[in-house]
Amino acid sequence: MTGPYKFIVTIELVPGTRDEILARAPEVQVATRVEDGCLSFDCFTCTDDPNRLVFIEAWKDEDAYAHHLLRDHTQRFLEFCEPLHRSFTFETIAATT
């Protein structure tokens, strides 16, 4: 794949755990946004369901994202979130216009 690598991650949280994750999200967001190859990294709470978080990310390419996954801050955040979610969906996206 050439060009930016973009995707949406949807996390269905265990009820009552949202505030725990949101308290940690700014730390990983700041660290991620300064990584080489990070074009954007944003976290949203769904207005329809407060137990659903959506991360929208864009990277220079898949290699940049692969390096991101190996970073200590990424590993710590993923390990922290693991017991706090019910499901995790990863969808790659591309602009059509």
UniProtKB/TrEMBL annotation:
It is an enzyme of class 1 (oxidoreductase). SUPFAM superfamilies: Dimeric alpha+beta barrel. Transmembrane segments: none annotated. Keywords: Monooxygenase, Oxidoreductase. InterPro entries: ABM_dom (IPR007138), AI-2_Isomerase_LsrG (IPR050744), Dimeric_a/b-barrel (IPR011008). PROSITE patterns: ABM. GO terms for molecular function: monooxygenase activity. Its EC number is 1.-.-.-. PANTHER family: ABM DOMAIN-CONTAINING PROTEIN, QUINOL MONOOXYGENASE YGIN-RELATED. This is Quinol monooxygenase. The lineage of its organism: Bacteria, Pseudomonadati, Pseudomonadota, Alphaproteobacteria, Hyphomicrobiales.
